[in-house]
Inverse folding.
């Protein structure tokens, strides 16, 4: 009834309110920084990478699965991109190959979970070591400098500054969010994802091809990880062996601040997007308020614990 | 089998199982089970836990393929290599699994169409159409109108009886020729049992048939026309309701139980 609609909307309004509060606090604490547009342009260049990873992982979490391997999938895809670009100077080819490698890594995760039957948390811990190890081995532990990539069309399309101002990645990120939101809420595929996360036995008995849907979700996650990685490489004009590692916890924090249930079956794309924004602005807010950067983690931790506690008590999302 | 029922011979069966056997990792679940279902009848399938009732309906509904045996639905000889839940539904077999037919957190309008949403050619769901159909089902089959239940409410807001009503209403909406119910009255209050049994009697009004599985004999006896007793993977008895009182049915079941376990 209206109550359930209200409940859904309330959760999203709540997350949005939290973002508003934080921005308000930061504006009061450091008006010079947070009342000028420059900081927001900077956010638009950094937050999309976390957000894109979190968005596609949200669908996987709603289906009741996890993927811990995406930081390493980023590394192998980024290395693929960099090395192919360096040897051929062909950026689109390098990008397509990187996306393929990412999709392949996701497909392997999917097979391990769906066909072999390894729980996803365990399977993807394994593949996360594997892909990181392979990347470091292939790169001999060395970074790649790909500065010439800045001159390519690909750079302008994916991470260029539109009108010399707006980072292109924010548009890609918003497009991805809109697309995934449409798929989750209005497409048959999203319907299957929701029922698989709700109760996989029911989904199976009701004729949903749970294997195919879950494998596709892992492939999507791998491909989006590769896309994010290529965009990071383009933005930085660099690949480094630990690329992606920093995103792991930020991505999960974004998803759970966004109100997606770890038990599967419910979650919102919008919530994750706002969650990523909240996580993304905290560091700048703390530093511009004159506090030491050491506060960042502590505040992250506080906000994560506080928001998931609110969900558990107000929305009874416990088991 | 089938000789005990007055329809046999004069009316062709809707559904015919012949010598179905199935084992799981060497454990026999079904042993040469043959069964006919006739139009307009409610067939009660009773037996203790582990008698093979659930395996039998999972074969019927396309969840498990049997090791040997045949299934004929209408005039279709079923090929078990391609037979699945979706094909069973296309042939008019709808199954209401115990505890396993509805997604708790999902709204009613998704649950009615789970596994087969109404969609455009690109796969986008026609939400308004699904919601309209859902309200119709709530109104016609579940009797939930007017108490503030909307198509957007999640299933977890419904009582056990309402859930069974919803699942049965869904089967009726898709115009199933055969509705299979697996323990629909387990864990319901007495009042709700009455309601669900009324839903079940209503199914056969339009020459549809129903297979009603339960280990509660008295519930089965109230609505079934014919009762089949299973024990350890086999059909061990088949009775017309008119030939058997509830007490006799009870003593038959107890007798089987005594035979099976009394000697040890």
């Amino acid at each position: 009834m209206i109550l359930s609609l209200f409940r859904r909307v309330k959760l999203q309004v709540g997350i949005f309110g939290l973002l508003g509060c934080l921005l308000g606090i930061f504006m009061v604490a450091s008006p010079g920084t947070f009342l000028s547009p420059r900081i927001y342009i900077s956010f638009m260049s950094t937050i999309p990478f976390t957000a894109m990873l979190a968005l596609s992982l949200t669908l996987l979490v709603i289906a009741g699965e996890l993927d811990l391997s995406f930081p390493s999938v980023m590394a192998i895809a980024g290395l693929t991109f960099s090395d192919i670009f360096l040897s051929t100077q062909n950026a689109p080819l390098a990008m397509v190959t990187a996306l393929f490698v990412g999709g392949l890594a996701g497909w392997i995760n999917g097979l391990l979970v769906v066909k072999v039957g390894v729980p996803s948390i365990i399977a993807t811990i394994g593949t996360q070591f594997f892909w990181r190890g392979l990347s470091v081995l292939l790169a001999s532990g060395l970074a790649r400098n790909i500065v010439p990539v800045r001159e390519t069309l690909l750079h302008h399309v994916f991470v260029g500054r539109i009108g010399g101002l707006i980072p292109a990645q924010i548009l890609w990120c918003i497009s991805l969010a809109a697309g995934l939101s449409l798929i989750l809420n209005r497409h048959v595929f999203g319907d299957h994802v929701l029922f698989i996360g709700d109760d996989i036995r029911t989904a199976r008995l009701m004729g949903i091809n749970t294997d195919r849907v879950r494998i596709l979700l892992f492939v999507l996650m791998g491909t989006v990880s590769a896309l994010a990685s290529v965009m990071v490489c383009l933005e930085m004009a660099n690949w480094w062996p630990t690329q992606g590692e920093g995103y792991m916890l930020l991505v999960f924090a974004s998803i759970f601040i966004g109100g997606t249930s770890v038990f599967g079956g419910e979650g919102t794309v919008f919530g994750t997007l706002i969650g990523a924004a909240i996580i993304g602005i905290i560091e700048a807010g703390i530093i511009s308020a004159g506090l030491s950067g050491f506060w960042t983690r502590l505040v992250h931790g506080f906000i994560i614990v506080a928001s998931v506690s609110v969900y558990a008590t107000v929305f009874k999302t416990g088991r | 089998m089938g000789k005990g029922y007055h329809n046999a011979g004069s009316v062709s069966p809707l559904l015919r199982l012949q010598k179905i056997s199935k084992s799981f990792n060497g454990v026999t679940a079904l042993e040469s089970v043959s069964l006919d279902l006739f139009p307009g009848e409610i067939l009660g399938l009773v037996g203790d836990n582990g008698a093979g009732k659930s395996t039998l309906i999972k074969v019927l509904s396309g969840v498990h393929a049997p090791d040997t045996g045949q299934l004929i639905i209408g005039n279709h000889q079923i090929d078990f290599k391609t037979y699945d839940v979706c094909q069973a539904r296309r042939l008019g077999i709808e199954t209401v699994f115990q505890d396993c037919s509805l997604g708790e957190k999902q709204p009613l309008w998704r649950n009615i169409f789970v596994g087969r949403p109404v969609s455009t050619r690109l796969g986008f769901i026609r939400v308004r159409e699904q919601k309209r159909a859902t309200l119709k089902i709530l109104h016609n089959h579940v009797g939930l109108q007017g108490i503030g239940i909307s198509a957007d409410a999640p299933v977890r807001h419904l009582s056990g009886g309402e859930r069974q009503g919803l699942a049965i209403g869904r089967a009726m909406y898709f115009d199933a020729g055969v509705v299979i119910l697996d323990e629909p009255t387990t864990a319901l209050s007495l009042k709700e049992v009455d309601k669900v049994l009324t839903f079940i009697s209503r199914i056969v009004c339009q020459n549809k048939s129903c297979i009603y599985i339960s280990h509660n004999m008295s519930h089965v006896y109230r609505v079934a026309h014919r009762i089949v007793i299973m024990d350890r993977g086999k059909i061990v008895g088949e009775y017309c309701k008119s030939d058997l009182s509830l007490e006799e049915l009870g003593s038959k079941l107890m007798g089987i139980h005594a035979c099976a376990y009394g000697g040890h």
Q: What stands out?
A: Residues 127-142 of chain B form the longest helix (16 residues). The two ends of chain B are 30 Å apart (CA to CA).
